[in-house]
Automatic annotation (TrEMBL):
Enzyme superclass (EC): hydrolase
Entry EC number(s): 3.4.11.2
Keyword Protease: yes
Designated name of the protein: Aminopeptidase N
Membership in a protein family: Belongs to the peptidase M1 family.
InterPro entries recorded: Aminopeptidase_N-like_N, Aminopeptidase_N-like_N_sf, Peptidase_M1, Peptidase_M1_aminopeptidases, Peptidase_M1_dom, Peptidase_M4/M1_CTD_sf
Domain Aminopeptidase N-like N-terminal, residue spans: 120-194
Peptidase M1 membrane alanine aminopeptidase domain sequence ranges: 230-433
Co-factor(s): Zn(2+)
Length: 831
């Protein structure tokens, strides 16, 4: 430890990697009026370094301590502080500026450096920055924390035939000797993680005040998608302006469709980035795909208010921006999509994914604690994206829609262009309801897990004398979640809805009602937890699609809990239902459950005896389906099983002839999926199939993707071994979505015997993946690796790793426990 570091420890501000909460709190109190003037020279060669200069202006209210500027790599060549050159002093990912060089009031620091950050996502003829949550400090020296918002004046020097997009409008550009210099106007106030720019060869389409940049070349997809994209985007903007009573708060609204983008979208101020595949759909897209597109467009638009206009103060409240983006997106999609069933969509979108984490020993609370920003990426997941909207809908129902909306409007107005915390919002909402929101928030927001409901029915002469409903934490803890839900009493000739207000751990309802033939708990799909099920209920005969969906989900959750429902029995129920179910969103659930049960919870040696019947069921269901969307959904489910030779021959014929079954239209990427599925199944001449599919692909980006996946599709184990070994090198993990797909190929259920040997190293590399990858990559890595294992030997690998690493990063440990929970359940259920 050198003298400077010793002094900083004495002052209570140790120089440590990342951005500690203590450092962030100190800087937020002393630094203001920040402006970054950034100039980047980006050569066409994606491996060549990027040269950069920066002028950083800010005000200091105190110079009692040295200044730490965040920059992850020590590539600074020149530093000038308030007109005087100083030697760069770099410690633990920070440029250190001594107090003697600073002044109370306005300061200016000029910097020159190079950057080769992976967060610049450089490709052959395009690049884009993605800096959430703490990646801004990998690209330029900055105060990388969300509550130090700044203005940016950006200049980009790029190849002359490239487009350039930033947070602010283009001011002007000049071309000189093959280089285009693009200058942008000064931006709005932006947190560092929301700063972004994109440059490269893109097509530009404009409608009204919205600009869309893309690289899509499929004319059919463009024809089917461009108008809906603009229409949904415009409707989403109008909805948000009306709901919040605040006009769009930034200087411009651009969208950039990025091939193989890491997320569905990212809400950069005025320059939203989307995954291209999520936007550009063909005319036969399933309803699930259409809903997903509407959702992601609405989600990122809502972020412009929730997240961009008002930003969390620290990433322990990152869930706030995500919950409101999803919460608003659900409402917006109800407007932008015709004949949309909001309640059904909300149920099928959020509950299975929230349960998928909350039932595990690695479950986390919605609001988590964060000591250092370098760990912020591990806070993202299905709890904040899917449990939080469920919580927020319960809160809206508790308060009433009007009071809830008025509270949100006040929140946005009070903290506009600034930062706020969850307690700040709770205090505003608490004033609009007699309910004690602090107590309500304790179990919903600050604790992990879900309730398990039990009931006791007493009757006399066909009348209910008592129906007692109780809840307890699924972990056995005596907790209860205040919530509303409904039950359906099903009689021979009618259905009656019974409201339930769980304002205490045990309540009694429905006294005096006639005893029903069947009780369906959570019939409206608003309650949260593990509910009792009647395994003999004829679910498909229930008219309400929401009640059917809730019943399907309850059955699956009870099966996982080992509550009187075996995988084989549930598989039979789901197979019977999929032949009669008409609602596409419900068919999607049933298809997912067939796939999950067959590959995850049925022993490998039993699958061949079941495959032909399941394939036949799915094919029949596809032929009976009334719409092209549902036919396509069911054909996809059929190809997902395709274990028998007959099924594989059918899939091959569709691929070979480039013609789907009657009523099913397939796009280029779907034919690619058929080819890769055949390769994994070691179909005859699979390599020739892959080579021909590669030749068929016209889009250069999609061609590059399949070329990357080739090694993972090989049935030569040595080739797969070499590919897996190559992933230890960070450079070979640059295209994270490609890597996740490749891992899924290698750990397909049909290959687990050959791939189990990869598990120890997959866990060993996880910490490095978390340090170097984007926020969802550790989760994607674990999911692709462990999704289908069901043997005690595989479970033992995970248990051994955790036992041998007792001090492992607790947030990464939680991810491991979340993503391997199904494996442990499979071992128990199969045993």
């Amino acid at each position: 430890m050198n003298i400077l570091t010793t002094v900083l420890f004495a002052l209570g501000l140790p120089v440590q990697p990342g951005v500690s909460a203590k450092l962030a709190e100190h800087r937020a109190k002393t630094i203001s009026n920040i402006h970054y003037a950034l100039n980047f020279t980006i050569p066409a060669d994606q491996k060549a370094p990027v040269l950069a200069t920066e002028v950083l202006d800010f005000k200091l209210s105190s110079i009692a301590q040295t200044l730490q500027i965040d920059f992850k790599t020590n590539t600074i060549t020149q530093v000038n502080v308030n007109g005087k050159a100083i030697k760069p002093n770099f410690i633990n990912e920070h440029l250190i500026i001594g107090a003697k060089s600073l002044i109370r009031g306005s300061n200016r620091i000029k910097l020159s450096y190079t950057t080769a950050s992976s967060s610049m996502n450089r490709n052959r003829d395009y690049m884009y920055t993605l800096l959430v949550p703490d990646r801004a400090r990998t690209v330029f020296p900055c105060f990388d924390q969300p509550d130090l918002k700044a203005m940016y004046t950006l200049t980009l020097n790029v190849p002359k035939d490239w487009q350039a997009v930033g947070n602010a409008p283009v001011k002007d550009f000049v071309v000189n000797k093959g280089v285009k210099t693009v200058r942008f106007t000064r931006s709005d106030l932006v947190s560092t993680y929301l700063f972004s720019f994109v440059a490269g060869k893109f097509y530009k389409v404009s409608k009204g005040n919205i600009n869309l940049y893309h690289r899509e070349t499929d004319t059919a997809k463009l024809k089917a998608s461009i108008d809906p994209i603009f229409d949904i985007q415009a409707d989403a903007l109008k909805f948000m302006e009306d709901y919040t009573a605040i006009k769009y708060p930034f200087k411009k609204f651009d969208c950039i469709a990025i091939p193989d983008f890491q997320y569905g979208g990212m809400e950069h101020v005025g320059a939203i980035q989307y995954k291209a595949a999520a936007l550009f759909l063909d005319a036969s897209a399933t309803r699930d795909q259409l809903i997903a597109r509407a959702n992601v467009l609405a989600h990122e638009t809502a972020h412009q208010w929730f997240g961009d206009l008002v930003t969390m103060r620290w990433f322990n409240d990152v869930w706030m921006k995500e919950v409101f983006a999803n919460f608003m997106a659900d409402r917006i999609s109800n407007i932008t999509l015709k004949d949309n069933n909001y309640t059904l969509k909300f149920l099928t979108d959020h509950y299975p994914l929230a349960y998928g984490v909350d039932r595990t020993p690695g479950a986390n609370a919605i609001r988590q604690q964060l000591g250092n920003l370098q760990d912020a990426g591990s806070m993202y997941g299905n709890i904040i994206y899917h449990k939080a909207p469920i919580m927020m809908r319960q809160l809206e129902r508790l308060m009433g829609e009007k009071a809830f909306q008025e509270g949100l409007r006040q929140y946005l107005k009070r903290y506009a262009y600034g930062n706020a915390t969850w307690p700040d919002l709770i205090s505003i909402l608490d004033a609009r309801t007699p309910v004690d929101l602090l107590a309500w928030n304790k179990v919903w927001g600050n604790e992990a897990g879900r309730p398990k409901f039990t009931h006791q029915l007493k009757t006399d002469n066909g009348k209910i004398t008592a129906l007692m409903i109780s809840q307890l934490g699924e972990d056995g803890n005596k907790r209860f979640w205040p919530q509303y839900f409904e039950m359906a009493f099903i009689y021979n000739d009618h259905v009656e809805t019974i409201p339930v207000n769980m304002k205490q751990a045990t309540i009694t309802v429905a006294v005096g009602k006639a005893k029903p033939d069947v009780i369906i708990f959570n019939s409206s799909g608003e309650g949260y937890g593990v509910f009792p099920v009647d395994v003999n209920a004829e679910i498909i005969s229930i008219k309400d699609p929401v009640t059917r969906a809730s019943a399907y989900i309850n059955l699956y959750e009870n099966m996982l809990s080992g509550q009187g429902m075996t995988p084989q029995r549930l598989l039979n129920i789901v197979r019977a239902a999929i032949l009669k179910e008409k609602e596409e969103l419900n068919l999607n659930i049933l298809a997912d459950y067939i796939n999950a049960i067959f590959w995850r919870f049925i022993p490998a040696d039993k699958r061949p005896g079941l495959a032909a019947d399941i394939e036949s069921t799915l094919w029949q269901a596809m032929e009976r389906a009334g719409t092209a969307n549902t036919k396509k959904l069911l054909f996809k489910a059929y190809t997902g099983i395709a274990l028998s030779k007959g099924a594989q021959d059918k899939v091959y014929q569709v691929w070979r002839d480039k013609r789907g079954p009657a009523g099913v239209t397939l796009a280029e990427d779907e034919y690619t999926s058929l080819a890769t599925g055949l390769a994994i199944r070691n179909y005859t001449n699979y390599q020739d199939i892959l080579n021909e599919q590669l030749a068929r692909i016209q889009n250069a980006d999609r061609k590059d993707r399949l070329q990357f996946l080739m090694a993972s599709l090989s049935n030569d184990v040595a080739v797969r071994d070499a590919f897996f070994a190559s992933l230890k090198d960070r450079a070979n993990r640059a295209k994270e979505s490609w890597v996740a797909t490749a891992l899924g190929n290698m750990h397909h259920p049909l290959r687990l015997a050959q791939s189990e040997k990869y598990l120890p190293e997959s866990l060993d590399w996880l910490a490095d993946i978390q340090r170097t990858g984007d926020i969802f990559f550790p989760q994607a890595w674990l999911q692709a690796t462990f999704a289908w294992y069901q043997t005690p030997a595989a479970a033992a690998v995970v248990s051994s790793f955790l036992n041998n690493n007792p001090n492992y990063n607790p947030k990464l440990k939680a991810k491991i426990l979340q993503l391997t929970d199904n494996m442990y359940r499979a071992v128990r259920l199969i045993k």
